[in-house]
Amino acid sequence: MKFTSRQPESAGMQLAPMIDIVFLLLIFFIVTWQFSRSETELDVSVPTAEQGEELTRPMGEIIINILEDGVIKVEGVQVDLFQLHDKLKAIAGQFENQPVRIRGDGAVTYQRIVEVIDTCQKAGIWNISFATQRPETKE
Known about the structure:
Layout: H1 15-40, E1 62-66, E2 72-74, E3 77-79, H2 81-94, E4 99-104, H3 110-122, E5 127-130
Parallel strand pairs: 1-4, 4-5
Antiparallel strand pairs: 1-2, 2-3
């Protein structure tokens, strides 16, 4: 009886599961980056407020940016009040209680903010919030 000793084969590293995980992480970071970029892509200096809640953003929230010169931008696209109304009306027809956040520059006229709020209400959207920032503390 002859016994032969065989060298055990080395278990190779499986690359397919590692590549899957890397691609999933890549997709996750790209998607989260897109959501965070939609609110901060513009140079809007929102007003400061000492009071206010740190709310988490609801899924599907629409961000309306109002620049210092009164220009309205939604999802990076400049719109007028009529286009804003049409867009919001279509969305409000699909989703009940659609959340909208208005990011108005601190230097924009109050009248322009009221016009945007009025347009939201005419389109059937009542769940409106305003973006503010906490004042800088001097230490």
